[in-house]
Predict the structure.
Amino acid sequence: MCGIVGYWKNKPLVEEDDEIILRMMRAISHRGPDSQGCHRDINRGLLMGHTRLSIIDLHTGDQPLYSDKKELVLTVNGEFYDYKRIRARLMCFGTRFTTKSDSELALRLYEKYGMDFVTELRGEFAFSLFDEKRDSLILVRDRFGIRPLYYSLQGENVYYASEIKAILEHPDMTPELADEASINQLMQCMVPGTTAFKGIEALKPGYMLIVRRTAGGLDVRQEKYWDAEFPNDGGHKVLADEDWVRDVREKLIECVQLRLEADVPVACYLSGGIDSCSILGLATGAQQSPVKAFTISFEHADYDESVIAKEMAEHMGADQDVLQVDGDDLYGDSYIKALWHAERTFYNTLGVAKWHMSKHVNQCNYKVVVTGEGSDELFGGYPFFKRDYFLHGMTDEESAVYQKSLDRSNKLFQGAILAEKEMRHPAFEGLLGFTPSWIQPWMMTLELVKPLLSDRLRKVVQNYDPVGAIAESFDPAMLEGRHPLDKTQYTWIKTMLEGQILNWGGDRMDMANAMESRPPFLDHHLAEMAFQIPPELRIRGNTEKWVLREAMRGVLPEILYRREKFAFMAPPGHKEPKNQRGLKKLIDSFLTDSIVKEADIVDNQRLKGFIEGYYQDSDPLSLTRKDTIINHLLGLHILFELYVSRRLRIASMV
């Protein structure tokens, strides 16, 4: 795992460019502290930098990588799996490799297949490839967006990096928070492809950005090479239940085994859910030895899964390491560090807890962990998926039976991931035929946020619909004629999986401490199989992820096999005295009159009234939603201080 940076100007490089690219690389040195490399093409105005976290081919895998005649230049962030088999196949056609690195695979596949090369790649990756003959720069991001990649087009110049902070190190860039993105962050859900910063975009998952320099300037186009394509309703693959169970089991075993490939030790993240527990069980079998398992424990019993995780660790004979995280850890400097790494706001301090965990894993001398992300997305695990399946994929009679049990079992998450009343939006109604349950709590959050906006942003929101912008970002061809469960899974995958779970819940918190996380469930071979599974096997009766549970029944202890999905969250700010004290200190430090006025995101007086109401509130549901808003308000103003005003320096805190 690594970090990549670069830019391509419309004029030759000068001496100053050497220092600029070094600054950009230093900004993401946490992603790759083991070595650095840079490609310079003075006449073309091209610089490509790489910071390396060495995991495979520790001795000869430094980058950039070059083709034999040095007409192709490659820098990679990520892992390509099954690379040994693909290397062997290519060698049968005369291809020769100069390193043992998996990254070289992209270079050799491009030489053989041209632009179709990306379909051969399996894994999580973001990379840049320069083709001298075609005078083109190609940026590629993996299918689910596990690895980040950002870019900015300024006139005839292009800038890119694994993290936004590196792009902002270039003197051509003026950091500024984007108005529309600020509104979307306050409601929690970003529009795919956007970032918190004006003029900087995220390359969408499953896309390539192809930049060519022509006589007329830059020719820029985006090409989609993959999407989460569900079959038409009624067109799911027909197999016997036991055949689906077998196929899911065998494919997941393969995906886990591939992700254990490394020249350094590999550990597991372990929570109390069946996802990470399944991964631990399969990793234990594949490694034929006890696996190191890292678990987060919270003080508040309602949110602590460590006791359940211990059951699995003991069941597998794992070497479990439990990290206790409390309110003092979730707020203060660590909260600020997490925002600096995430480069966007978060609604819950789970990301801060993950930052602490990755730091702890690093201190235990591990660079790689295998994780359970993606299981809920593929197999219908979240409570809002169940709700939409019950409401829109069943008869009214069936729905009434199951809806009661769903509402009883998920009261803890109302106000956060479930709305307590139905919300509708015309853009989603027109696109899906219903408004997905996952976005409804954030629509309710938006209604509380709008009155707080500054006069300037109130004018913006008069002409900008943040919910409609999300709906308009989807490809209608991927939704037309699909089953309601597939529709809600697809829209979540394209938004919250990439923008939340794989960002401040994944890569950005892990790589903050040079620690690579690998999610086997997001292997596209497994995903394409899961998309074909009939909805009634993903959610059977009131049991979510039924087919996965059955596939892993022999691995899981009985208590886990029968356990209902529990969304992994940190205790909200109002839940514990330590949380309350830490949150208040952050509010007093960053939601001050001067900072709020300068940022001009919310109105000062209306904000004060909201905060006072928060302190006096005693309703758990109301407090949970207000906690969300407070986190986003703090996040935007801390981002403003970190990146725009630059009064707050993170270097001394990291």
